[in-house]
């Protein structure tokens, strides 16, 4: 079964944008991460899944909101990805507050943190993600 067009587009952009990047082990292609985050969100709507695929492209690649829009990515997905993109110098707490306020970004960030916890994190990262998850999941 083929994924909906926007999800397929997002997956293609993420795979291309992250080409040559690897995870912390310096072996696993980085694109395996957004793929895993998207899999964790299986059953969610297309905006959530497409955002999962693209959640790191603005922060870690040459992609911009304009290039995503030109490629055909919806404004809803671009808005969520922009929300998830931490700005230089932005305090982590402020970043998490912004993400928590955006329903799509919040879902994807939780899945992102859970996936990052499976990537041999150090003690400092484990603590950071644990605190972040408690904050994001607190109603």
UniProtKB/TrEMBL annotation:
**A GO MF label:** guanosine-3',5'-bis(diphosphate) 3'-diphosphatase activity
Q: Could you tell me what this protein is called?
A: Phosphohydrolase
Q: PANTHER family given for it?
A: GUANOSINE-3',5'-BIS(DIPHOSPHATE) 3'-PYROPHOSPHOHYDROLASE MESH1
Q: Which residues form a coiled coil?
A: none
InterPro entries named among the record's database cross-references: MESH1
Source organism: Termitidicoccus mucosus
């Amino acid at each position: 079964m083929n994924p909906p067009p926007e999800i397929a587009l997002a997956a293609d952009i993420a795979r291309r944008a992250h080409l040559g990047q690897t995870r912390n082990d310096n072996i696993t292609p980085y694109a395996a991460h957004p793929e895993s985050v998207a899999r964790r969100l299986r059953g969610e709507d297309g905006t959530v899944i497409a955002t999962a695929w693209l959640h790191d492209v603005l922060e870690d690649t040459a992609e911009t909101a304009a290039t995503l829009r030109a490629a055909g990515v919806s404004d809803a997905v671009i808005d969520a990805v922009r929300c998830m993109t931490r700005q230089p110098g932005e305090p982590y707490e402020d970043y998490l507050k912004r993400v928590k306020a955006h329903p799509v970004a919040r879902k994807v960030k939780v899945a992102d943190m859970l996936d990052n916890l499976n990537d041999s994190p150090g003690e400092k990262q484990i603590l950071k993600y644990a605190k972040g998850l408690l904050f994001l999941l607190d109603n």
